[in-house]
Amino acid sequence: MEKTTNSVSKTVVITGANRGIGLAMVAIYALQDYQVIALCRQSSPKLASLAHHNVEIVEGVDVSTEAGIETMLSAMNGRTVDILINNAGILRDESLQNLNLQTIKDQFQINAVAPLRVTHALLNYLTSGSKIALITSRMGSIADNGSGGRYGYRMSKAALNAAGVSLAKDLATDNIAVGIYHPGYVQTDMVNFNGDISSDIAASRIVNLIKTLTLEESGVFKHSNGDILPW
Description:
Mean pLDDT is 93; it is low at 1-6. Helix content is 35%, strand content 16%. The protein starts with 10 loop residues before the first strand and ends in an 8-residue tail after the last strand. It has a seven-stranded parallel β-sheet with strand order 3-2-1-4-5-6-7, with helices on both faces. It has helices at 20-31, 45-48, 66-74, 101-121, 151-171, 199-212; strands spanning 11-14, 35-39, 55-58, 81-86, 126-135, 177-182, 221-223. It is of the alpha/beta class. Helix 6 links the parallel strand 6 (177-182) and strand 7 (221-223).
């Protein structure tokens, strides 16, 4: 991909930017001459290598904590956020026979509550025409649950989907659209790289969906390939 020559004119904020899909989206937007604010708890060598491509790395951002939100806000410097991508998330594994309530709570805080917390904190930085993306999972679909288990992940992603629909309705009058995206089964360390598509492909698909997102499709649950998913 060749770097475009237009001057930086828009800002994108990406949580969980140090690896996987978040890192891949940082690289894509940097090449498109966005100003990228890459939020993460701790940077990575790959993210650090992008720091000279319109990328500002902000470490110490645990999106599930007030301190992390304050660190994020301190880096904004009054800039308008054109695109907010709530990407940070965790996956744990619980079964009915091995029910770990703490990991369920942890997933709720990071996967469901944190994206709402981040969005709320940045409301004053969003403007008419801004877009919000929630990186969710089809595992949050009730209709699509064919195997059971994964209680915390499924429940937290279903909650995130519900939040996305409410955000879409609440922000429509402000001309802010909300995309709710399942990236696919992606080869990341979250699934021990057992996915069937790469982070680069998933990220490219999501970036394209965000680009074409309109108010008419705000709050729609989509696969990164464009298919509409059942709730």
